[in-house]
Amino acid sequence: MSGILVSLEFEQIAVYKPGEVEYEKSVATAYLLYRFARPSYVVQPTHPAQVQDIVRYLIEYNDRQKPDSQVSITIKNGGHSYAGFSSTDKGILLDLSKINRVKLKLDKVSHPKSVMIRGGALWGHLYKQLINGRHKGYMLAGGDCSTVGVSGFVLGGGLSAFSRSLGMACDNLTEATIITADGRMVTVGENRDPDSDEGKLFWALRGGGAGNFGIVVQLKMNIHQLQKEDDSARTRETVIAGRYTWFPYPGEVEEAKPMATMNESYTTKWVDSLAIHSTWICDLQEARTLPAIRFIVYHNGEKNSIDKQLDKLVEQGNPSDQTSERRRELAKPLRRRTDYAVPS
């Protein structure tokens, strides 16, 4: 492998070996299953062209090797893969973290509004530009966690807090630049013939492209304007968000019926502007309770709208039966906790 390393260093591509600070920072992971994964080397390109150089040098090297001596490559964007796809015990870990430029296109001329995102950017890089640039009223189908990589999120599908109103992240992908397995740099997009090779590749990238077809070095995504109650100049785009954790106590289980209540919540037809994420949690410090349910609520709109939706849920069925009573009890804290308006 020394020949590859010499070539990469000649191209001024950073190469790190075990024990070096940048190596240890790159392989570190919060997922304990993969904490001992140690690739032979970590490479950190700073430009898409360097990614292409890395792939080409590996192709040349592997063509001269027997199958069991060939060097594999693993791609890392944010390192949040639950399946360990961004960790490896062999070969080269290609860390895209230095290729993280984000360029917003929100001027009056651009339509639709969009953003160009380099392959190593995290959601935090993008959100920071939206906030610091005071781009009021704009949002995209992005991840909740700022340290998640954009490209891995989008290429795997990408469920967002705004997916019910804006679609999945991959639905909002309009263009991608990819280094293919044979070392070519190809740009594909929605304007290509869907029956062409480029059109089929673009189709496959939207949900199935997480390292399967090459290394994506740049993405283009749509940016949307948040909803307003009406078109008057006096109203502004607002997001309502809140969190509530429900701890049913053993003595209250028969009345609360948490499983039945949650089944009803999961099957309720909420409006597309409303997303309620729920997580079942077990608090080991609170032995008196059963597993609890944490609700995180996002609403693309005003507070009055979400209150109306909760009221509508409560009013379903017979007001005197236990189901309606459970709904009322659950709606109270949800309404109270979703009072954090985020003016855009």
Automatic annotation (TrEMBL):
Task: Cite the record's Basic and acidic residues compositional bias ranges.
Answer: 323-344
Swiss-Prot/TrEMBL keywords: FAD, Flavoprotein, Oxidoreductase
Its needed co-factors are:
FAD
Transmembrane stretches in the record are: none
Annotated region (Disordered) at 315-344
Task: Return one GO MF term.
Answer: FAD binding
**Statement: the UniProt record of this protein carries the keyword DNA-binding:** no
Q: Which Pfam families match?
A: FAD_binding_4
Q: Which PROSITE patterns match?
A: FAD_PCMH
**Ranges for the FAD-binding PCMH-type domain?**
35-226
Does the record carry Flavoprotein as a key word?
Answer: yes
Instruction: Extract the Gene3D superfamilies matched here.
Output: 3.30.465.10
What does the similarity note say? Belongs to the oxygen-dependent FAD-linked oxidoreductase family.
Protein known as: FAD-binding PCMH-type domain-containing protein
Organism of provenance: Aspergillus flavus
